[in-house]
Amino acid sequence: MDLEHHLRYMRMATKLAKYALDHDETPVACIFVHTPTDQVVAYGMNDTNRSLTGIAHAEFMGIAQIQAKFGPLNTEIFRNITLYVTVEPCIMCASALKQLGIQKVVFGCGNERFGGNGSILRIHQDSSTAPENSHISVPGLLRKEAIMLLRYFYVRENERSPKPRAKANRKLDLETFPPMDWSIYLSKDGFTSLFGESLLEYYDKKLDLSEKLDWDLIDKNQDLFFQDLQNKCEQFSLQAAKKPKSQPVS
Ligand SMILES: [Zn+2]
Question: Which InterPro entries does the record associate with it (predicted)?
Answer without folding.
Answer: APOBEC/CMP_deaminase_Zn-bd, CMP_dCMP_dom, Cytidine_deaminase-like
